[in-house]
Specification:
Blueprint lengths: L12 E2 L13 E5 L19 H13 L4 E4 L4 H8 L4 E4 L4 E3 L5 E2 L7 H13 L5 E5 L2 E5 L7 H15 L2 E5 L2 E5 L5 H9 L8 E6 L5 H9 L3 E5 L4 E2 L3 E3 L2 H15 L1
Parallel strand pairs: 2-3, 2-11, 3-4, 11-12, 12-14
Antiparallel strand pairs: 1-13, 4-5, 5-6, 7-8, 8-10, 9-10
Helix pairs in contact: 1-7, 3-4, 5-6
């Protein structure tokens, strides 16, 4: 739904957007991004720390929604489970990995071109301070958050590798990721919504990045709503919360309404 540069399709809106009502989760299926939504974005992917309060909040929300909660992240499924625990659905790697609450998993074969992609990214990182390569089960991410001046060179490398391998180029916040094509956060949410216990309930998705726009677009198409986390920008979301702190506070209040 987004193109390789992270550009948004038409019919999105530009703020200002109001905060979501605390009643929004009544009768809903809830889908949550991780980085930038539930936790602050760290300089390095391995720099994120999750406290017991967040884990308790997620599990309490899943219970209050009768299991209609899923984390939909660009991180691998196993990484999300390590951070937040299990017992709820998780989609990882931008919709490529699907794990339901009962442990049932689905994922395509890993692409043979990934070792070449990772080697080329590592070669670039070795000669450019501040660049980090993130290995994923179905892709690789080239992070330049600590060296923003290298964005043109990082983009050029990612575009070349995408052309050479046929892998999909996903642009995010200070990262270019090459991964398996045909999946995104919107397809993940749609798949969950076609299965129990999500089916038949209004989908709500919270996310912060341009990579979350596919999810916003999908929930809107199914009669739901998106909640943008962070600064105003062009988006398919209907509501907005200022930051991670306000998001966690809103989730806690919305959960009280459900009880």
């Amino acid at each position: 739904m987004n193109d390789a540069a992270g550009n948004m399709p038409r019919q999105s809106r530009m703020g200002p957007l109001n905060p979501p009502p605390e009643t929004l989760l009544e009768g809903a299926s809830l889908f949550l991004d991780f980085d930038g939504t539930l936790v602050e974005i760290a300089t390095r992917p391995d720099g994120v720390r999750v406290d017991a309060g967040l884990r308790d909040l997620i599990h309490s929300l899943a219970g209050a929604l009768d299991g209609r909660l899923a984390i939909v992240s660009g991180r691998p499924v196993d990484a999300i489970a390590e951070f937040l625990g299990e017992g709820f659905a998780i989609s990882g790697s931008h919709g490529i990995e699907m794990r339901w609450a009962d442990g049932h998993c689905e994922a395509p074969p890993r692409p043979d071109s990934l070792p070449h992609v990772r080697a080329e990214m590592q070669r670039f990182a070795a000669t450019n301070s501040g660049v980090l390569v993130e290995d994923k089960p179905f892709g690789a991410g080239l992070h330049y958050r600590e060296a923003p001046e290298l964005e043109p060179q990082a983009r050029a490398l990612a575009e070349r590798l995408a052309q050479e391998t046929g892998l999909y180029l996903q642009a995010g916040k200070m990262v270019f990721e090459l991964r398996v094509e045909g999946h995104d956060k919107g397809t993940a949410i749609t798949r969950f919504m076609n299965s129990a216990p999500f089916h038949g309930h209004r989908p709500i998705f919270l996310g912060d990045d341009v990579t979350d726009e596919d999810g916003f677009e999908a929930v809107v198409a199914m009669g739901g709503a998106g909640v943008l986390i962070g600064a105003e920008r062009q988006t398919h979301a209907e509501y907005r919360l200022e930051d991670v702190g306000m998001t966690l506070a809103w989730l806690a209040k919305a959960m009280e309404v459900l009880r």
